[in-house]
Write a structure and sequence with these properties.
The chain is an alpha/beta fold and 490 residues long. It has helices at residues 16-19, 47-51, 55-63, 79-93, 104-107, 118-133, 149-155, 162-177, 198-202, 214-239, 261-283, 288-296, 307-313, 363-377, 403-421, 471-482, and strands at 9-13, 97-101, 137-143, 184-188, 244-250, 253-256, 318-322, 326-329, 338-340, 345-347, 353-354, 360-361, 381-385, 427-433, 453-455, 467-469. This is Beta-glucosidase. The active site is at residue 385.
Length: 490
């Protein structure tokens, strides 16, 4: 029987800004996600429309705090009031780990507060205690697309050097509070995404930087996040000696569209740019590819004395990543089909299936990604996001039959096992996105469903919020129970 390694951490993943709700309860402040409007009239493949944020958009959001229809992240899946039920369902599946995030604005409502919000700290105490009851390890992301909105309005987000200090204070607070409850931590979710959607990741709005090179603004903010990540690793290790701290990147995997040397070279360039962000957090220094890009594009990053040293001294312990799809690269894209992916547009691979949202399905690409990352870093890996967004529907029998999701997962799990057994990859665990239906990041929809658990809610916020186990719930339960896929053959 082919089994996954003993102690393999099976589980699921969510983010506070997409699942929690309760956005005005327990002393929580505004986060950037509370101000992110859904554009129901826009094509789901038009990422520019969905990610475009202006100061006027923020003013509009602030003027309508009662609106949870156009701002669906404000209600999420209401984990805030359903967390006991949801964690019990995770335990029923057999979860060993649950990847979640702490909403910074629950702990420090404005980001720059003198004292933390006790009600927010208590909420996560109760969540961690509930997880402990079922022996589920929390894997906590410190910052997952939810900087406090006040830091955007009064400090220009992560472009401000001051925000590093605010983040340090927040990290020290949560590490001290939860030092006996949380062992596994991630610093920034998809730290590279600040280049693709700077508002949700870094609290950056282009119209607030008149006369500045906005690309340079984004890279400066990212530098501040790199320094903050190293400091967070330092703090975590000091307060929780047996803790493990990882980085988290968007694993975009590209193939040359053809064997033309020009296509292969362009693909190599693209992949080097993808790895630049994890390189920085694993090796503790900027890779030559990023330094060359800065030089060739006249981008100047301002560093403070000691930045390079702290980044070098406190690299991450493991590398985690999201993997959903792969794409192709061509030196000349003229006449080629382009399809969306994880907040990108890229050349379509004619050999792959495509989801309802245009994302190409490529299980072998996950194996390739695991091998490439492990060969590059020689550090443990963790797949912390992977899954299929689909338009699940309740059948006449009151159930959700999702064989397409089971098929997707089966193929990806097989490739993970192949990477472990045949390629020698050290893989810590797997947390699928998302274990329960929540508001999708890219288009702010719940109708793009990923979970094993169906939430009775539509895109306009109508529904009972009842939880319903899908067929994939029971299938995943058996995978975890057997630590293997072989049960299907018995």
């Amino acid at each position: 029987m082919r089994k996954f390694p003993e102690g393999f951490l099976w589980g699921g993943a969510t983010a506070a800004n997409q699942i929690e709700g309760g956005w005005r309860e327990g002393g929580k402040g505004w986060s950037v996600s509370d101000a992110a409007r859904a554009h129901f009239d826009a094509d789901v493949k038009d990422y520019n429309r969905h990610n475009q944020i202006t100061t006027r958009d923020i003013e509009e959001a602030l003027a309508h705090p009662e609106d949870e229809v156009n701002y669906p992240k404000r209600h999420g899946s209401d984990f805030y009031h359903h967390y006991k039920e949801d964690i019990a369902l995770m335990a029923e599946m057999g979860f060993k780990v649950y990847r979640m995030s702490i909403a910074w604005s629950r702990i420090y409502p404005n980001g720059d507060d003198e004292q933390p919000n006790e009600a927010g700290l208590q909420f996560y105490d109760e969540v961690f205690d509930e997880l402990k009851k079922y022996n589920i390890e929390p894997l906590v992301t410190m910052s997952h697309y939810e900087p406090p909105l006040n830091l955007v309005l009064n400090y220009d987000g992560w472009y401000s050097r001051e925000v590093i200090g605010f983040f340090e204070k927040y990290v020290r607070t949560i590490c001290e509070r939860y030092k006996h409850k949380v062992k596994y931590w991630l610093t920034f979710n998809e730290v590279d995404s600040i280049i693709r959607h700077p508002f949700t990741t870094g609290g950056l709005i282009e119209d607030r930087f008149p006369g500045k090179n906005f690309e340079e603004v984004c890279y400066q903010a990212m530098h501040h996040q790199f320094v903050a990540s190293a400091l967070a690793t330092k703090i975590c290790h000091e307060i929780i000696p047996d803790s493990q701290v990882g980085c988290m990147i968007t694993k975009l995997t590209y193939y040359p569209y053809s064997c033309k040397p020009e296509d292969v070279l362009e693909t190599q360039k693209r992949m080097r740019s993808i790895y630049a962000y994890s390189d920085t957090q694993v090796f503790g220094e900027y890779p030559s590819t990023l330094l060359s890009y800065y030089k060739n594009h006249n981008i100047h990053i301002v560093k403070q004395p000691g930045d390079d040293e702290v980044m070098k001294q406190y690299p991450v312990d493991f590398v985690s990543f999201s993997y959903y799809m792969s794409s192709c690269v061509a030196a000349d894209e003229t006449g080629l089909d382009v399809t969306p992916g994880n907040t990108i547009l890229a050349v379509k691979n004619p050999h792959l299936e495509t989801s309802e949202w245009g994302w190409q399905i490529d299980p072998i690409g996950l194996r390739i990604s695991l091998v490439d990352l492990y060969d590059r870093y020689r550090k443990p890996l963790f797949v912390v996001e992977n899954g299929l967004g689909a338009k699940d529907v309740l059948s006449a029998d009151g159930k959700v039959h999702d064989p397409y999701r089971i098929d997707y997962l089966r193929k990806h799990f097989k490739c993970m096992l192949d990477a472990i057994e045949e390629d020698g990859v050290e893989l810590m665990g797997y947390t699928s996105w998302a274990c329960i239906d929540l508001i999708s990041e890219s288009t702010k929809q719940i109708s793009k469903r990923y979970g094993y658990i169906y939430v009775d809610l539509d895109d306009q916020g109508n529904g009972t919020y009842n939880r319903i186990r899908k067929d994939s719930f029971y299938w995943y339960q058996k995978v975890i129970q057997n630590n293997s896929l072989d049960f299907e053959e018995q």
